[in-house]
Amino acid sequence: MQNLVLEPQILSNSFSKIQTSGKIFHNLSPAELVEHALARKEGSLTSTGAFMADTGSFTGRSPKDRYIVSNELTENSVWWGDINIPISEEYFERILQKMVKYLEDKDLYTRDSFAGADTDYRMNLRVINTWAWHNLFCNNMFLRPNQEELKEFEPDFTIICAPGFEADPQEDGVKNPNFAIINLSKRMILIGGTGYAGEMKKGIFSVLNFILPYQKNVLSMHCSANLGEDGDTAIFFGLSGTGKTTLSADPKRYLIGDDEHGWTENSVFNFEGGCYAKVIDLSREKEPEIFDAIKFGAIVENTRFKKGTREIDFTDKSVTENTRTAYPIHHISNAVEPSIAGVPKNIFFLTADAFGVIPPISKLNKSQAMYHFISGYTAKVAGTEMGITEPKLTFSACFGAAFLPLHPTAYAKLFGEKMEKNEVNVWLINTGWTGGPYGIGSRMKLAYTRAMISAALEGKLDFAPFAKDPIFGFEVPKICPNVPSEVLSPRKTWNDPEGYDKQAKELALAFVKNFEKFREYASEDILSGAPKVS
Ligand code: ATP
Ligand code: MN
C-alpha cells in the first residue's frame, strides 16, 4: 500500500472555492500534459507525435443542453429560446456546489489562458480540467500568456469542465445529465457529463459574443480570417463544415485564425490561439497545412489507427464523422502572431448548399450581403452536432446563431455599420453540392473552390463577365481561372434543368419564409436583397 500524499490546495475566485485532496497541476507544458495523459491512459501517441483521444459518448456539441443563467444582467439582454435556454441562479449554484464536491478528491489540471489577441479586448481565462488532454486542448485553442503575463494573472472568467460529473435532471433543473452552463455575471462556465472538448471553446465564444457587441461595440464573428501579401484581410463566415478552417489555410496567404474573430473600428483580431480542424478523409495532397500541423503537441479526437500501426487512419468513421484535430496556431507555418490585421477587404459567406442550387461563387451587393448575413443559409452536414447524419436545410442567423446570446439584429446592425464605413467585396461561395442535390450531385471540388476564392482575392474576377441570377439576383461570373466554365452555372450542371428551376424556387421560398421573423427589423433596403419568387 502506498500512502497518498495529500496536498490540499485551494483554487478560488470570488464565488467558489475548489479544494481537493488530489493534486493540482497548474500550467503544465504540452510535453508534461502528454506524459500525464498517457500515464492516465486517456489516449495514445500517434506516429506523428500527436496525442490521440476519444471524447466519449459525445462526439459533438450538444446545443440542446447548453444553458445561460437568467439573472439581472441577462434577463432583458439575452435572446431566450431554443438556442439560449434559461436556467436559474439557484440551479446554477446547486450544480456548482455538486461539482465542487465531485472535484474534492480529483487530480486537477488547471491553466491560465487568454481569449482575444487584441489586448484591448482580451479576457483572462482560468480553466479547471479533470482530464489532462482537455487541459492540453485549452493550451492549444486559447492564447498562451508568457511568463511575465502569468505573474500577475487574474482570471476574468473560469471554466470548470468535469466530463465524469453528471447532473441529476430530477433536481438540478437540466434536461439531461450532460450540460454546459454559462453564467455571465458570475463569470463561469460549467461543463459536465460530456467529454467533447469543443464545448469549452464554443462556450467562451458565446461569452465573447455577449460581451463584445453588447458592452464594447465590437462585432464578434463566426468566421476564419487570413491576410494577403499586400496586407488585405479576408474573412470567411460559415456554419460548421462549410469550409472556414479548410479554406483559410492557404499557402499563399497568412492565417489570422480559423473560427472566431472580432471586428473593431480598425482591426480584425482572433479570439483563439489555435485551430480545430476536421480530419475526416484528410489527405496531405488536398490539405497539406492541416495535415502537417498534426505533430507533437497536437491532439486528434475520435480517430483510429491503421491496423497494426500507429498511423492515423483518416478515413475511419467508426467513431464519428466529426473527427478533429486541435493544434496551436504556430503549427501552421504562415500564421500571423499576434493574430491581428486590418479591416477586411473581402468577405466570403460559405454555404454548403445540399440542394445544388446556389452558384459556386457569386458577388453580392450591399442589400444582398445584409440579407444573406441575417439569413445564414446552409445545410448542416454530418458531424459537429449530435444527431445529424445527412444534410439538413438550416438558416442560422449571422452564420452562427448557436453561439449568439443576443438577438441576431444586434450583430446585423454592427455588420451593417461596418459595411457602410468600409469598401468591401462580399462573395457567396457554395462549397456544397453541384450537378444535383445531395444524393444525386456531388460535393464541389475543393480545388475549384480554392481557385474561385484565389481569383476573387487576386482581383481576377474584376473584369470577368457576370450574369445576374434570375431568382437570387446576385452576380455570377461566367469565367474563372482554373475552373471549368460549366461548373460556374449550377443549372448547367444538372441533368434535368427543369428540376433545377423547381429546386431553386423551393429554396428561394424557404429563404423568404425564414426571413419572416426578421421582416419587422429589416429596412426596405435589406429586403430588396431577398430572392424574387412568387
Ligand atoms: P467548424 O465550424 O465545425 O470548424 P468549418 O467551417 O471550419 O467547420 P471545415 O473544417 O473547413 O469547416 O470543413 C470543411 C470540410 O469539407 C473539410 O473536411 C473539407 O475537406 C471538406 N470539403 C469538401 N469539399 C469542399 C469544398 N469545396 N470547400 C471546402 N471544404 C470542402
Ligand atoms: Mn473550423
From TrEMBL:
UniProt-annotated location(s): Cytoplasm
Binding site for ATP: K202, H222, G238, L239, S240, G241, T242, G243, K244, T245, T246, E287, R324, T449
UniProt keyword annotation of DNA repair present: no
Binding-site positions, Mn(2+): K202, H222, D259
MF-aspect GO terms: ATP binding; kinase activity; metal ion binding; phosphoenolpyruvate carboxykinase (ATP) activity
SUPFAM superfamilies: PEP carboxykinase N-terminal domain (SSF68923), PEP carboxykinase-like (SSF53795)
Pathway given in the UniProt record: Carbohydrate biosynthesis; gluconeogenesis
Cofactor binding, note field: Binds 1 Mn(2+) ion per subunit.
GO cellular component: cytosol
Reaction(s) this enzyme catalyzes, per UniProt: oxaloacetate + ATP = phosphoenolpyruvate + ADP + CO2
Keyword Cell membrane: no
InterPro entries reported for this sequence: PEP_carboxykinase_ATP, PEP_carboxykinase_C, PEP_carboxykinase_N, PEPCK_ATP_CS
BP term (GO), one: gluconeogenesis
UniProt enzyme class: lyase
Main location: cytoplasm
Residues that, per the record, bind substrate: R61, Y196, K202, R324
Keywords annotated in UniProt: ATP-binding, Cytoplasm, Decarboxylase, Gluconeogenesis, Kinase, Lyase, Manganese, Metal-binding, Nucleotide-binding, Pyruvate, Transferase
Protein EC: 4.1.1.49
Domain of life where this protein originates: Bacteria
Signal peptide limits: none
Family: Belongs to the phosphoenolpyruvate carboxykinase (ATP) family.
Function comment: Involved in the gluconeogenesis. Catalyzes the conversion of oxaloacetate (OAA) to phosphoenolpyruvate (PEP) through direct phosphoryl transfer between the nucleoside triphosphate and OAA.
Name of this protein: Phosphoenolpyruvate carboxykinase (ATP)
Species this chain originates from: Algoriphagus boseongensis
This protein's encoding gene: pckA
